[in-house]
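Incident log, support desk, overnight shift.

02:14 A customer reports that sequence design results differ from what the structure should imply. Their input is reproduced verbatim below. On-call engineer (initials T.W.) acknowledged and began investigating.
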């Protein structure tokens, strides 16, 4: 880890945080510790490990030096004391929530969240007696109605997937603190480069590291960042559930993180250019991008974000049929789910992130058939605009 002292800027942190790597023959990059288990000198050392002596490793599901290096980079980047990385974003959500809740208890979630998170809550948590109550994303003043004597936590995502609604972070933290709820924030869309929820008083941040952190659409991983004691608890849950990160994935994650600030800067720039273009197009009914002045929460987004990212959602005239035509006509953005990679991806939320939602669930999440979600990559925006133009001409 970088030497303690003045907190470094994000771009410095991302390239100068080799964890314990330097110990190993001075390697500049963190080696991949492709080992499931670790040898002890003798039983005394095993006992020392169990008593918490740092620098010792037992078994990769518990911890691994390559994996640890990723955690040591992400904790200060989000402004937390510690980090737990996991096999996926959903594994991160599961670890932190299950470490805080038990059967019979409840938590609150905003109503526009990633579809996979929704399915996890609906199909797993509910089955094991943990109830979720949904609240309107943009109306924190109404959230108190969902609080009962059993409510323990608040789970929120902003900007939301796919429609980029914004949660008032200050108000949400005030709400959670007032009701004694543990607050968890999904910061996947913004990344810590554009928004640092812990600095607003959120208790824990989670990420699907499969997205901007990885940056190259080549791995699945997740992270939870927060106070050390909370991360210790989440780690205990993760190692019981078994959702640990693989050392190869941790290496790729570290590699991706080195350029995170640079990439996000370009995503911000391209996102803005494309959103501006789409908002002038007559075949486009609505553009959801927090950087646009026309976004109903633009002022709020400006207060809590330093950039608006590369995620855009737009609704074309003509519903799902027209949206399908447009997406199938695109030549540069790849018709694929996921987001946050260097290459632009386009998807129809009704067939991907929100597939399987009932009509009512789609309505509550604010997802329509005519919506196209665009993860704007780092290509030349002129090429992307020309491509969108020809695709929109088809409807
Ligand atoms: C906002 C958000 N949170 C969480 C997840 C889940 O992450 P993973 O696919 O890494 O499990 C996703 C995945 O698309 C997401 O978009």
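02:41 Re-run completed on a clean worker. Output:
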């Amino acid at each position: 880890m970088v030497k303690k002292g003045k907190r470094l800027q994000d771009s410095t942190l991302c390239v100068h945080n080799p964890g314990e790597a330097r110990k190993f023959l001075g390697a500049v990059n963190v080696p991949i510790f492709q080992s499931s288990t670790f040898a002890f000198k003798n039983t005394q050392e095993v006992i020392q490990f169990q008593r918490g002596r740092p620098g010792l490793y037992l078994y990769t599901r518990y911890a691994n030096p390559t994996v640890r290096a990723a955690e040591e980079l992400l904790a200060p980047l989000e402004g937390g004391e510690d980090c737990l990385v996991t096999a996926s974003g959903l594994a991160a959500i599961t670890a932190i929530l299950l470490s805080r809740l038990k059967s019979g208890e409840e938590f609150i979630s905003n109503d526009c969240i990633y579809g996979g998170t929704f399915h996890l809550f609906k199909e797993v948590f509910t089955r094991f007696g943990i109830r979720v109550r949904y609240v309107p994303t943009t109306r924190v003043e109404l959230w108190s109605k969902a609080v009962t004597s059993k409510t323990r936590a608040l789970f929120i995502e902003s900007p939301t997937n796919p429609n980029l609604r914004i949660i008032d972070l200050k108000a949400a933290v005030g709400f959670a603190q007032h009701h004694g709820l543990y607050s968890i924030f999904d910061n996947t869309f913004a990344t810590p480069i554009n928004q640092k929820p812990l600095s607003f008083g959120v208790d824990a941040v989670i990420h699907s590291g499969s997205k901007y952190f990885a940056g190259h659409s080549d791995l699945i991983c997740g992270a939870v960042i927060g106070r050390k004691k909370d991360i210790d608890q989440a780690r205990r849950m993760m190692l019981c559930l078994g959702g640990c990160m693989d050392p190869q994935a941790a290496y790729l994650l570290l590699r991706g993180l080195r350029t995170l600030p640079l990439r996000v800067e370009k995503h911000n720039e391209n996102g803005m250019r494309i959103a501006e273009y789409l908002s002038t197009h007559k075949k486009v009914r609505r553009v959801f991008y927090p950087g646009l002045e026309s976004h109903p929460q633009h002022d709020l987004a400006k207060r809590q974000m330093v950039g608006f990212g590369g995620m855009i959602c737009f609704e074309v005239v003509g519903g799902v049929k027209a949206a399908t035509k447009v997406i199938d006509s695109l030549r540069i953005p790849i018709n694929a789910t996921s987001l946050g990679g260097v290459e632009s991806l386009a998807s129809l939320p009704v067939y991907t992130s929100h597939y399987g939602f009932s009509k009512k669930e789609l309505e509550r999440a604010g997802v329509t058939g005519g919506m196209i979600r665009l993860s704007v990559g780092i290509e030349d925006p002129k090429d992307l605009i020309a491509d969108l133009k020809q695709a929109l001409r088809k409807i």
